[in-house]
C-alpha cells in the first residue's frame, strides 16, 4: 500500500473541505443591456458562475472597482469560481465607464443588472429571493446606490429585490462632502469625469444622503490602511447609519490597504470570505425565520 506524507494528507483534506474540486459552470458574456435600449446606454454583459446541479442557492452580484473609469469583469473570474465552489451563484458585471458615461448611467446599469438577475438567475440555479450585491471601491459605491436609493427602482416601476449589500472598502459614500473638501486642492477634480463638476450631481449620487430610505441590511468592510478619502467618507457613512438606525454590520481589517481588500479573495480561507459568506448565511436564516414564523426579522 502506497504511503503518503502527513503534509500531503493535510493538503488533500484541506482541498476537499474547501470544495477545491467542486465543479463550476461558467456562462460568460451574457447580455443584460442590449445594444438597442431605451436608456441611451451601451450594450453590456455579465458572467455567471454556479456549482454544477445548483438549485435555489443565494446569489451575489459583484461590481468591480476602478475609479469609475476602468476595470472589467474578467479580472474577477477567480472570485466567481471560488464563491461558486462555496455554493453561492455569482454574477460579475461590466458597466458603462467614464469619461464616456457618468455616474447616473452607472447607477442605471447596476439596477438593470440586478433586474436581469431576478428575472433569469433561476435558470442558473440561483434563488431570485436571495439576491445580494457587492462591490469593491467604486463598485462598492454603485452597490450602495442600488441597495439604498428608491428612485432608480421607482423609475423601473418595481420594488427593490436586493436582500443585502456588501460594501468592500467602498469609495464615494459621501462624495458630495469629499469633492467639496477637495475643490482647491491638487487633483481635486480627478473624479469629475464620472461625477461632473456639479455639486448637485455629487449629492444625488452619494449614498449617505439616502439612508432614510434604506431597508436593506449592509455589511461594510474597511481596510485600516485604505485611502484617506475612503476612510473619511466611510466614517461619515457609519455615523449617519447609526443615527438612522440602519442595519449595518462593520468589519475592520487591520493593516490592510485598499487593493488587498479585494485581492484577498484569491485565498478561500481569507477573512473576506468569512465575512461575505457569514453575512449571506445570516440574512438567509433571517428570511427562513420570517417565512416560518410570520415575524419580520429583516427586509
What do these coordinates show?
The structure is a single chain. The protein is an alpha/beta fold and 299 residues long. It is 38% helix and 22% strand. An 8-stranded mixed beta sheet has the order 1-2-4-3-5-6-7-8, with helices on both faces. Helix 9 links the parallel strand 7 and strand 8. Helix 3 crosses helix 4. The C terminus is likely disordered.
Q: What order do the helices and strands come in, and which of them pair?
A:
Blueprint: H1 6-17, E1 24-33, E2 44-51, E3 57-63, H2 77-84, E4 89-93, H3 103-120, E5 126-136, H4 138-148, H5 151-155, E6 162-168, H6 175-181, H7 192-195, H8 199-204, E7 218-225, H9 228-244, E8 248-257, H10 260-263, H11 271-293
Helix pairs in contact: 3-4
User: Which class best fits the helix and strand makeup?
Assistant: alpha/beta
Low-confidence stretches: 6-19, 290-299
Biggest sheet strand line-up: 1-2-4-3-5-6-7-8
Please compute the radius of gyration using only Cα atoms: 19 Å
Distance between termini? 56 Å
| Strand content range | 15-25%
Total helical elements: 11
SSE order, one letter for each helix or strand: HEEEHEHEHHEHHHEHEHH
Helical amount: 25-40%
Largest sheet: 8 strands, mixed
Average pLDDT figure: 91
Number-wise, the strands total 8
Give the overall silhouette: globular
Oligomer: single chain
